[in-house]
Write a structure and sequence with these properties.
The protein is an alpha/beta fold and 777 residues long. 50% of the residues lie in helices and 18% in strands. It folds into 4 domains: 56 residues; 108 residues, Nucleic acid-binding proteins (OB fold (Dihydrolipoamide Acetyltransferase, E2P), Beta Barrel); 257 residues, no CATH class; 245 residues, Ribonuclease Z/Hydroxyacylglutathione hydrolase-like (Metallo-beta-lactamase, Chain A). It is built from 25 helices and 23 strands. An 8-stranded mixed beta sheet has the order 14-13-12-11-10-9-22-23. A 7-stranded mixed beta sheet has the order 15-16-17-18-19-20-21. It has a 5-stranded mixed β-barrel with strand order 1-2-3-5-4. A hairpin with a 2-residue loop joins strand 17 and strand 18. Helix 1 crosses helix 3, helix 2 packs antiparallel against helix 3 and helix 13 crosses helix 14. The longest helix is centred in the C-terminal third of the chain and has 38 residues. The radius of gyration is 30 Å and the shape is globular. Pfam families: Competence, Lactamase_B. It is a multi-pass membrane protein. InterPro entries: ComA-like_MBL, ComEC_N, Competence_ComEC/Rec2, Competence_DNA_uptake, Metallo-B-lactamas, RibonucZ/Hydroxyglut_hydro. It comes from Sedimentibacter saalensis.
């Protein structure tokens, strides 16, 4: 636990503070309780977490971001790709002829028309890029994903790779040959779509599946079948143990053979994290059986987590790692605390309860990463797990026998093809059900902590039936939850303004009480609406948007609108001009005012009625959000001519979203001076337009405005509260007064919790006295 806490503290940037507090408490504890060895172990694990994180953060390649270099790379294997590039997993050996002290993992991207031989060493001239492609909190973090693979930078090849050596690794060749044999076996005997299904199961690679099919599988709560996990390992182990013992091999030797083959299989498919967890736990179980020692599943899962995070501490932030371990933990806790209360003859009820508990325990992980809870997953798992068990066993059997008896396996392959076709159509059919599941927002870290604290306390109380304060504990947690997550939000009248990282574009959102607004939602990036805008809103719990304002109809301001309207309930749409695709858009004109309540008003400063300009930028909607003597100015892409026309209407701004992303055609000296923004926000990405202009940035800085940008700082979040402005960014920069929010927002909640605990303690004492009196009487 302390090792994991150390990793989290290191990642969040307060390890020194955390270590100092823990160290001081342990020193005091050592003098009081004399537990020197126990406390020394805790300190050792904390130090290990910091050293390990620091070691795994070091990268030579990352020191050359945005540089063109000549690198020598071991090309390990080719990734399945649906983009404009082919990608290969590799390990860098040299950079500009200088040998690295140790190989460094990377991904090499090449043009689709350029192939590189797998299992070869090549020399490549290319541009080195970082992995932080999207800097928005809660969204899919590609950087974290690649850190799980020990990758800190990627390479985009600029010319054809020169092959230095082929077949550099025998072990890698064996793995590649197995995958090739597996693909040839199923592609030559099954339909393409059905072959992709069994390949995704056996090779633990969901990229083989069509996107619509995989989305349907996730809605059914069956995605775990397509990531080799404990289920697969148990099936393989049981099948092999049965075969070996049927052949007259002793039980112990059967164990050894089965264990060896399962580890070899893990090597062949590349040791995915879910496989590693299963293999480590299986090895501990195997060792206990061979050595005739007692096996503790809780100790095994804890030791497995420790071993894997020692190898790579950043697996602790990997969705697959967390989901695999939380699912495994749910089965362990269920068997220890819940199943013992269900009669053995009621197997169906036990299975239902087990899957319900699985969903409950994995809910925080699922909500944080996937935002979808498959309610019908219980039914689908109970019905289809036995079917997939047969499919998996049949698939492995056909794979093994095809090399020897391919001629006589035509009928078995045909039957197998029909089974997979039936399963595929079942997935498509189930997608039409209205109640497959529900979309949920991402839980915050504090909510996750509260959830697991309450859950584990419930398990403890269920296991200690004689605990007479059980009702009091439940009352405390229910009251705390009701106050913090039901009553407290109703009383919150702060305004929350966010500027998301949209690359070269603009995407801002406003939340105030029960109202939600969006001002521009576009980017030059392809798929911005599907992969950024909609997930951003879903993860923040936005189900309804009261108004969307589109400043003008350039793609970098509106490309995400269609996807938002298809997935989120949008009540009103405003813009500065008509658009044939969005005929319901209401034209907003200068002088217009939207009164939200006495504290918040939205003023339209531009364009004037019937205004026309050949330059679409100058027709941009200019808005001012007026909130309790503070204001936010959003001028779209207006240029100097319009800036001069609205100077008289501009007041000193609290926050200014810099017009036209900081282009040299906007932000005249008069405009910058008149707006007098406390904070100026630049929203832009990597581009060839010379945005932002250096002189424009200096102009804002010289005016005394604090300049933040989505390119450098990522997502920027503002809180307007009681006449004060607070902000923090994706990269961790925050306003000097931001700490006050912790005292104003967190301390009251902590006080409520302590008050409830005090009440529980008083009631406990009363109950205790009553029990003693009853015994005496």
């Amino acid at each position: 636990m302390f090792y994991a806490a150390g990793i989290i503290a290191y990642e969040l940037g307060f390890f020194s503070f955390f270590f100092t507090i823990v160290f001081a408490l342990l020193i005091y504890n050592s003098f009081v309780l004399k537990k020197y060895m126990y406390n020394s172990v805790i300190i050792a694990f904390l130090l290990l977490s910091a050293v390990n994180c620091n070691y795994n953060s070091n990268s030579v390649l990352a020191q050359h971001i945005n540089e063109n270099m000549s690198v020598r790379v071991e090309i390990i294997n080719k990734n399945l790709s649906h983009s404009d590039y082919l990608s290969y997993n590799g390990a860098v050996l040299t950079i500009d002829g200088k040998k690295l002290d140790s190989r460094e993992n990377t991904i090499v991207y090449v043009d689709k028309n350029t192939e590189i031989s797998e299992n070869s060493i090549v020399e490549i001239k290319g541009n080195i890029q970082g992995t932080d492609f999207s800097k928005n909190k809660l969204l899919f973090n590609y950087k974290n994903y690649l850190r799980g693979k020990k990758i800190h930078a990627v390479i985009f090849a600029e010319c054809k790779a020169a092959v230095i050596k082929k077949d550099f690794s025998l072990l890698n060749e064996i793995s590649l040959n197995f995958k090739e044999y597996t693909k040839n076996t199923f592609y030559s005997n099954l339909s393409r779509k059905n072959a992709d299904i069994i390949l995704s199961i056996i090779l633990s690679e969901s990229d083989y599946l069509e996107e619509d099919l995989y989305n349907g599988i996730k809605k059914m709560g069956l995605a775990h079948i397509f990531a080799v996990s404990g289920t697969h390992i148990v099936i393989m182990y049981g099948f092999m143990l049965f075969v070996f013992m049927a052949l007259g091999i002793s039980r112990r030797m059967s164990w050894i053979l089965s264990w060896s083959i399962i580890w070899f299989y893990g090597f062949l498919i590349g040791f995915p994290v879910s496989v590693m967890r299963s293999l480590v736990m299986f090895t501990l179980l195997f060792g206990s059986e061979v050595l005739y020692r007692k096996y503790s599943s809780l100790n095994a899962i804890g030791l497995a987590a420790l071993i894997l995070t020692v190898y790579n501490p950043y697996w602790l932030f990997d969705a697959g790692f967390l989901l695999s371990f939380s699912a495994a933990l749910s089965f362990i806790l269920f068997s220890r605390f819940i199943s013992i209360h269900i009669p053995e003859e009621k197997k169906f009820l036990r299975n239902i309860c087990m899957y319900i508990f699985l969903q409950v325990l994995t809910l925080p992980v699922i909500s944080y990463f996937f935002n979808y809870v498959p309610l019908m997953g219980i039914v689908y798992n109970i019905i289809l797990i036995p079917v997939f068990t047969v499919v998996l066993a049949w698939g492995f059997l056909l794979l093994i026998l095809n090399g020897m008896f391919s001629v006589i396996l035509t009928v078995p392959f045909h039957i197998f093809d029909l089974i997979l076709t039936s399963l595929r159509y079942l997935v498509y059919f189930s997608d039409n059900f209205a109640f497959n599941g529900i979309v949920v927002r991402s839980m915050s870290f504090s909510e996750i902590m509260f959830f697991y604290t309450a859950l584990f306390l419930c398990l403890y109380l269920a296991d200690h039936k004689k605990c007479f304060i059980k009702k009091l504990v439940f009352t405390v947690f229910i009251s705390f939850y009701a106050v913090i997550y039901a009553i407290y939000p109703i009383l919150d009248n702060n305004l929350y303004f966010s500027v998301a990282d949209a690359g070269q574009g603009l995407f801002t959102s406003v939340r105030y009480k029960d109202f939600s607004f969006i001002i521009d939602c576009g980017s030059s990036k392809r798929g911005f609406g599907e992969y950024t805008a909609v997930p951003y809103l879903v993860k923040h719990g936005v189900e309804n948007v009261d108004c969307i304002f589109i400043s003008h109809w350039d793609q970098d301001h509106c490309s995400g609108l269609a996807d938002i309207q298809n997935n989120i309930n949008v009540k009103n749409l405003f813009s500065s001009s008509k658009n044939e695709e969005y005929i319901n858009a209401v034209i907003a004109e200068k002088g217009g005012v939207i009164n939200i309540d006495e504290n918040l008003k939205i003023h339209v400063l531009w364009p004037e009625k019937n205004y026309y300009s050949r330059n679409k930028n100058n027709s941009s909607l200019v808005l001012v959000l007026d909130y309790m003597n503070m204001n936010i100015l959003l001028p779209g892409d207006i240029e100097g001519d319009v800036e001069r026309l609205i100077l008289e209407d501009i007041e000193k701004s609290t926050i200014l979203v810099v017009p036209h992303h900081g282009s040299s055609t906007s932000s005249t000296e008069e405009f910058v001076k008149k707006s007098g923004a406390e904070i100026s926000v630049l929203s832009y990405g990597k581009n060839n337009y010379g945005i932002p202009d250096t002189d424009v940035v200096k102009r804002y800085e010289f005016s005394g405005s604090k300049v933040l940008s989505t390119f450098e700082h990522g997502e920027i979040n503002f809180v307007l509260k009681d006449g004060n402005l607070y902000y923090n960014t994706y990269t961790g920069e925050s306003s000097e007064n931001y700490y006050r929010l912790y005292f104003e927002l967190i301390i009251p909640k902590l006080f409520i919790f302590i008050a409830l605990l005090a009440w529980m303690w008083i009631k406990k004492e009363e109950c205790y006295e009553l029990q003693n009196n009853n015994k005496f009487n």
